[in-house]
Amino acid sequence: MNEPTAVELLLVEDDPKDLELALRSLRKANLANRIHIARDGAEALDYIFCEGPHSARRITDAPRLILLDLKLPKIDGLDVLKRIKADPRTKTIPVVVLTSSKEQSDVIASYQLGVNSYIVKPVNFEQFSQSVRELGLFWLILNQPPKAGG
Amino acid sequence: MKRNLRVTAALAGAVLLVLFGVAALFWVFGQIDQAASARQHSRLVAMRAADFLASLIDAETGQRGFALTGDDAFLEPYLAVRGRVSGQLGELRQLTKLEESRRHLDAVRPLMDAKMGELARSIQMRRSGDMAAVGALVASGEGKRSMDSIRTEIGRVIEIENLAFEREVARFETNLRRLFVGIVAVSLCFLLLGALAANLYYRNNEHRLRNLEVARDIEERRKADETVRRLNAELEQRVIERTAELKTANTELEAFSYSVSHDLRTPVRAIDGYTQAVLEDYGPQLPAEGLRFLQTIRHSARHLGALIDNLLAFAQLKQQELNKHAIDTNALARTALDELGAPWPSRQVDLRVADLPPSFGDPALLKQVWLNLISNALKYTNKRDRAEIEIGCLKDNGADAYFVRDNGTGFDMRYADKLFGVFQRFHRAEDYEGTGVGLAIVQRIVSRHGGRIWADAAVDRGATFNFTLEKETKS
Q1: Which of A111, B377, B385, B393 shows its CA 20 to 30 Å from the CA of A74?
Q2: Domain count, chain B
Q3: Closest CA to A90 of A149, A11, A26, A34
Q4: What is the pLDDT of residues B410-421, one digit of tens each?
Q5: Which whole number is the average pLDDT over B3-20?
């Protein structure tokens, strides 16, 4: 069981507009109860691996889902994904890449690194909103993850 | 080289011949000169010998006259000759060059002395008046005998000299002929020498010319080789440069695509999203005009998003690798129809789908072809009360030509060549929505499958799009 302090969703997004729109969609679908936001790859890694400002956090209190943009400042999304999936403590956390990039090279690289889903942000906001709702519904509610650390 | 040696030898021979000829000519010329002077000399000796004899006869004639008359006047010739004859004989002996003549002349001297002595004695006898002694002396015949002997000897000398004269004349003439022949021969030798020299010069020149020509050929070939090498090097360099340029262009294109894909879509989504948010949160507070403006913004943003997506799809078609399979075309067309929402319950669409032969190609891309063609048919028939859409296949030059036919608005065939260009639109945006990329994508996919696409249409009488695909390359 998750600790009450554990977040349900880590949202890694540098673009404030996309961030706001994503949060709006999640909120409208009643999926955004406990969300932590990281604005670049370094922040995301600090949070996930309990470093820097997050050193008090326990790594076992893993988020139930990480929504990861690829094009991020400081540390690229693919590098964040690589760190998560290379570490046995974090590799079971479902990671969904949610990005504007339709590049096949990005899709292939993400799947090779063990991403759980790759979703291209639709230009159409309604479709975007629907995507966010559906993936939140699936990963946070329907999906049964293995117990962290177990 | 060998021939040159032969020619050189011949040339040397000719030179020797000419030298010999010239020497011979000099000799002949000497002979002629000698003959001429000897001829002259013999004639002179013969004349002097005759003079000598004449002197003696003059002396005798004078002596006889005196002996008969005792008149001193007759003695004048004798006196004129008396002191001279000995000198004449000596001179004659020196003059002649012939030993034979000299022997005869030596024999003359005692005879002459005797004769002159006899003459002197008889004159003495006549002066003393001893006529009888004179008569006896003459009668003794001594004077006549010595005179006859002298006459004989001098005659011999003249004969010998005349013979010598004849001989020298003959020698002169022989050598004159020899001179003529020699001059001709030497001239011929000169001609031969000239010819040989000319030949040798020509040969050498020719050889040198040939050498020059060969050298020129070699030089030309070397230059040609060099040119070919240089061109090859340039070509290689250009290929390298062009490849590098293409790689750069490709990288730039990829970077551009990535940028378009990522950066350009984000703001478009923001425009759409925030407009949506305003409509959702503040819609009720807005006047109708404001709502319409916001709807227009959203509409434009979505159109821009579709343009970007289509353009990106079109650009990526070029690089995308084809994953070809045998395809159940009936199933593929069915899938496309399903995705497009067939059978469109909100509209009156009369859809007829014939049995389609199997095709060969990349299923995802060929599905896109069907999707684009069928959605076009739907779009351009949406003003018809009853849309007719027919999907089928005909034979075109032995190839399967699939077609999608509609009874829609059609187009003017005059613009058919622009039909498949990117962003080429035949209708106003308010009449038919679209990005102008759909048919360009279709054409690119068909051409990447080795096929052909063409259209038949008339304004307001519908359009038919036909396309072929290459046959399956492996069984």
Answers
A1: A111
A2: 2
A3: A149
A4: 888 888 778 887
A5: 78
